[in-house]
Amino acid sequence: xxxxxxxxxxxxxAEDAAMRQYLREGExxxxxLGNRGPIRFEADGSLARDIVDAYWRCGxxxxxxxxxxxxxxxxxxDVNEILSRLPVERGAELDAQGRPALGVGHQAPTLFWxxxxxxxxxxxxxxxxxxxxxxxxxKAADDAPKEVVYLILGSLxxxxxxxxxxxxxxxxxxxxxxxxxxxxxxxxALFVKEPGRGASVAWHQDGVTHWDTxxxxxxxxxxxxxxxxxxxxxxxxxxxxxxxxxxxxxxxxAWVAEAGTERLPxxxxxxxxxxxxxxxNRQAVHGSFANTSAxxxxxxxxxxxxxxxxxxxxxxGLHNAPxxxxxxxxxxxxxxxxxxxxxxxxxxxxxxxxxxxxxLEAGETFHWDRSVMPTFKDYNLLDLSI
Length: 386
Known about the structure:
The strands form 2 sheets. Strands 1-2-10-7-12-5-4-3 form an 8-stranded mixed sheet. The chain starts with 15 loop residues before the first helix and ends in a 24-residue tail after the last helix. The chain has helices at 16-31, 49-58, 69-84, 126-129, 160-166, 169-179, 252-259, 327-347, 357-362, and strands at residues 36-37, 60-63, 111-114, 148-153, 184-193, 201-204, 223-228, 238-240, 268-269, 277-281, 286-288, 297-305. 26% of the residues lie in helices and 15% in strands. It has one domain (13-382): Sandwich (Jelly Rolls), CATH 2.60.120.620. The protein is an alpha+beta fold. Helix 5 (160-166) crosses helix 8 (327-347).
């Protein structure tokens, strides 16, 4: 792998010039939104007011320079190991070296496959039909494999480096700023956009539970952090329609029909350098195009909810079987926050560890060592999907 560059190549046939123009214009609009910069806090410890305002105005914000080169190297080593352990094909039990493949023997959903440059969800009933329009599928190279893995769920059970990112004290403080000190987990994943092969993710809004309930507001379905290993460009990154998190449930198919193309005119790309971390409201209309560029995108993805959005609520069932989430379910799922905080402190001892209020109030303590990792197997059966 190599780090992302600003150059991008596309193969959209007769639409190539139009797509290139769309990427350029989208990047220009994105960089003019005023929603990027380092994580900053006020004197009283609260998240800087201008950051809060920009996030709620746009539905996303890019925190610059969150992860340093040493941590990025840790993540890259783990990602390379994960990719080397993938099954040789869908359903295979061995990797290319003849070892038991990643995800074999797991009950929880782990690996998601797509044909190269495909759109596996768009225009289908999958994921409650929340991807109503299929994205354009460029033609992959003749030597491309039949299928590629583009999404790995439950990533904390496979990577200590990702676990440490999950315990990042400033990011957890941001989670508390938007979701309260008693915030709870959602899920974690690795998105892999391989050059010339990475799948698209059709336009959608996350969340299925609160659109028509009294709990609904512009933050009801939480947010995702997206930490970038190599950065992301207009060609391989996630695109967002700014402000769409405020609109309730959007008729995406009508938007695409009105535009006459899946290139939504108001959308902008999330542009990041290596080590930047974007925060994106799950209710915002967002998606990504097939990665025909020359650049890898590897995103360490993890999200959080307000506790009141989850407690006593029947789950959406996108990441696990639907169930009513009670306090014990939340407590069991949130233990990974405790282990992540301790794992990070052991690796980055100069940082002040985050103090997670529910663990403090319950008197729970967590000590990380590698013997704990096997207990994480299938932890994502407890994901809090709403």
